Structure prediction request, 282 residues.
Amino acid sequence: MQAMSPEAYRALMMAGTRTGKLATTCPDGRPHVVPIWFVMDGEDIIFTMAAGTVKARNIRHHPQIALSVDEEIFPYAFVLIEGTATLSTDMAEMLAWATTIARRYVGADLAEQYGRRNAVEGEILVRVTPTKVIARTGIAD
Amino acid sequence: MQAMSPEAYRALMMAGTRTGKLATTCPDGRPHVVPIWFVMDGEDIIFTMAAGTVKARNIRHHPQIALSVDEEIFPYAFVLIEGTATLSTDMAEMLAWATTIARRYVGADLAEQYGRRNAVEGEILVRVTPTKVIARTGIAD
Prediction:
């Protein structure tokens, strides 16, 4: 097992349509985890979420989150990120990011359509600036 | 987006070398998430962990966990499982499960070698019986 360079873990995180697994803490202390579509803006993680979801409720209650992205093939690799979420409902900013995120996950042809669908009232734009990153490859070595 | 049948979400979870993303709550309330190698025993999730890891510390403090497994390609699908972890240090049982888990993730040729490596003093066998399962496919539809 070896540590990964910032370039290597960024490449792992941004490869293809790999999703992030977003962990949050419920108000009663139970953990929650759900896959998200995300992109990076420099070192920051950017995603959108509907205000009525469990993750949104949890983040409003407890803005510290953890995110994992991993490579599910031998010899395996993973990135763990911790940080605090900051929220925005600026519609212009949300449309731009939702379209960028959609381009990654549904492709250029559908990006604008999905971007518009995901940048509406009731959606929240989330930015997480990492406070801690752990990135390891060769887990099975 | 549609609900998945138990057969369909079980197939998703057990496909190939797909990992589970295990979320736990830290003693100070922060969330933690890390990929794990796992297998299913009926509906239960089985994995091993080293006693000194963050996830082991968290589970001893707060045995409720959440686990997500997802399909990272269009139209996307995910399974979320919640449950309470029960721990065992029975070495015979641990060796059997560690070998089964290794067979999945490193293949039949290396399964016994990895099983022996992962069934030693300081490792803990974990069983999670689901109390809640959410399984959805066609997320991007």
About this structure: The helical segments of chain B are 6-14, 54-61, 91-106, 108-118. The domain at 2-137 of chain B is CATH 2.30.110.10 (Pnp Oxidase; Chain A). The longest strand of chain B covers residues 123-137. Chain B has one domain: 2-137.
